[in-house]
Amino acid sequence: MEAEGPLVSVLDHGALKLIQSYGDDSMICRAARVSVDGGVREGTPSKERDRVLIRYLAKQHHTSPFEHCGATFYVKAPIFVLRQWHRHRTQSYNELSGRYSTTFGEYYLPTVERLITEQSQDSRQGQGRVKGPEEALMAREKIREHCEKALEEYHSLLEMGVSRELARSVLPLNVYSEMYATANLWNWTRFLKLRLAQDAQFEIRAYAKAILAALREVFPTGMGAFAEMEGWG
Ligand SMILES: Cc1cc2nc3c(=O)[nH]c(=O)nc-3n(C[C@H](O)[C@H](O)[C@H](O)COP(=O)(O)OP(=O)(O)OC[C@H]3O[C@@H](n4cnc5c(N)ncnc54)[C@H](O)[C@@H]3O)c2cc1C
To answer: Please, what is the average pLDDT of the chain?
Structure first.
């Protein structure tokens, strides 16, 4: 079991942290080599042989050996990011509960640059028509005002005695929530393929980049092979 990673900042108030990982590059090779040699052999001391094998496995889509490794991340992200994230059914999740907790207080405020950017020219993903910094600043202020008001209402409902599970219904989608997400290495690569792509939303891509960086620390050869194949840089 590998040690925890650092708490990495993502977006304005978000964060990501590697909580635990299991396996390593040599585990991928051990699992693959049982096909040919059987037995419970140790990993080979040759990093170069392992590197060649891992690249071959990735290229041939012989992906099951990558399932013997995995990682758990702590994620603090806007609810709309978590909602996209939870579509990935091959991960296991535990999230902060609005029924038991009242810790919602921070919200995501996109930057002026982000508000202007049209993310994709050739699809309907992320289309926007904010013309320039002035309009963007106005839009940003509108979002801020709306969120401040919503949080105020949330707390006033709680003070009136409304239950947490109902008071939360006035919270906007950009409020930050927190979760743990666990997957095996192959399923992390599937997540990364979809969420690092140009047509994925900027905000979830920011988290995907942080996941890739953390996984590359623990599985330099395994993740390196996929990063090279997929052009993740
Ligand atoms: C850019 C982008 C835009 C999107 N836009 C929308 C949208 O507008 N609306 C929307 O609803 N969703 C949208 N999604 C979500 C998308 O449809 C998928 O739900 C999400 O990306 C998870 O992918 P997945 O099913 O491959 O992942 P996982 O759920 O992790 O599944 C991994 C793989 O396991 C297999 N699998 C898992 N469960 C099943 C099952 N029940 N039946 C068959 N095979 C299964 C499939 O092969 C699947 O590819 C979008 C995703 C992206 C990346």
So the answer is: 92
